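About this split. The held-out portion is used to measure sequence recovery: a designer receives only the structure tokens and must propose an amino acid at every position. Recovery is the fraction of positions where the proposal matches the reference. Here is one held-out target exactly as it appears in the evaluation file.
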């Protein structure tokens, strides 16, 4: 499960300000550049790189009120310089070795990294990825404690779209919008995203998850090439960034993030997880013991949480779910699942209908 960080990285604040200036120049409103300075928060008052979300929201909310532009979030975030943001730099380093691999696996990896580490960008919205047979959908889940305006939601939509488009171009199929009422308001979205836009109860990005060349399945590809993929998978840049920016993160939380990221791509062993965390197996076990838990407990908690979300989707087989959770066989998964919930995966899935 993704860690909850109720802050935004300092570089994001600066990137939004720079993009706002570019927006003003494009609109021929150079004089307003000096006027909006009064709305900027003094971020130097905060130690470290993470700024409280409510402070960032207050600043951007004031800027939105000043401009009164219906699509300000789309326009400003489309001009952000991603290369100045450590989150983007780190995710780029992790994905580089996979750019020439099966496009479905690349999509699965990019979506997994965005989900697990997006709090490094902002914690106000969680991108929840829903895996289906022919699609993978990213639902934007808003944190109730943060009253985000439509411009900020648009901004996160643009961020995820741009990151995914960078590594998985032209795979997006459509976008669903819940925070705008009336189809007449959706025309501008089509000009930005170049895909069909529709009103919905959730705001989501929907990606195609089919291999058009040979009809093979990404999970089948992972099963056949898991060892080679595991050797290439390096998440240290993102994990190091997380450790630097969120110093209060427990070892249990760090371990859970690594496990969730690795599941399905490589075996979730103590050795693989400790290597990703840049510590020895003995140190990992000692740190977890100091927090009154163990590696096996963290692994089971993570699998337990993910198994319920996978089973909620009818188009992913239990055999595929078993692999995505890092089990060697479906029977091993069935046994563990029944031990957790007192019913078989099929019975649980049927109860969700």
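Reference sequence for scoring:
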């Amino acid at each position: 499960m993704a860690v909850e960080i109720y802050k935004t990285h300092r570089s994001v604040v600066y990137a939004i300000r720079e993009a706002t200036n570019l927006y003003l120049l494009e609109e021929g409103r150079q004089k307003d550049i000096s006027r909006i300075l009064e709305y900027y928060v003094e971020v130097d008052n905060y130690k470290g790189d993470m700024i409280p979300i409510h402070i960032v929201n207050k600043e951007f909310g004031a800027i939105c009120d000043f401009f009164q532009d219906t699509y300000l979030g789309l326009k400003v975030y489309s001009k952000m310089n991603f290369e100045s943001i450590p989150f983007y730099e780190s995710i780029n380093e992790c994905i580089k070795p996979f750019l020439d691999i099966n496009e479905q696996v690349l999509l699965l990896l990019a979506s997994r990294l965005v989900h697990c580490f997006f709090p490094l960008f902002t914690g106000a919205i969680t991108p929840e990825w829903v895996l289906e047979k022919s699609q993978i959908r990213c639902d934007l889940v808003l944190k109730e404690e943060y009253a985000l305006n439509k411009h900020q939601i648009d901004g996160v939509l643009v961020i995820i779209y741009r990151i995914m488009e960078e590594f998985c171009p032209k795979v997006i199929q459509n976008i669903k919008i819940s925070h705008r009422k009336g189809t007449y308001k959706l025309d501008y979205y089509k000009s930005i995203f170049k895909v069909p836009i529709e009103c919905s109860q959730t705001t989501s990005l929907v990606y195609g998850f089919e291999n058009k060349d040979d009809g093979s399945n990404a999970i089948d590809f992972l099963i056949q090439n898991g060892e080679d993929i595991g050797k290439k998978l390096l998440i240290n840049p993102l994990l190091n960034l997380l450790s630097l920016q969120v110093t209060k993160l427990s070892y249990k939380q760090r371990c859970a993030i690594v496990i969730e990221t690795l599941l399905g791509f490589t075996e979730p062993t103590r050795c693989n997880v400790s290597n990703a965390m840049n510590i020895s197996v003995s140190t990992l076990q000692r740190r977890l013991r100091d927090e009154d838990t163990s590696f096996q407990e963290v692994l089971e908690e993570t699998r337990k949480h993910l198994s319920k979300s996978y089973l909620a989707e009818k188009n992913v087989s239990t055999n595929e779910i078993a692999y995505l959770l890092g089990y060697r066989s479906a029977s091993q998964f069935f046994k563990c699942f029944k031990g957790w919930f007192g019913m078989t995966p099929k019975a649980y899935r049927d109860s969700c209908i």
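Annotator remark: Residues 150-167 form the longest helix (18 residues).
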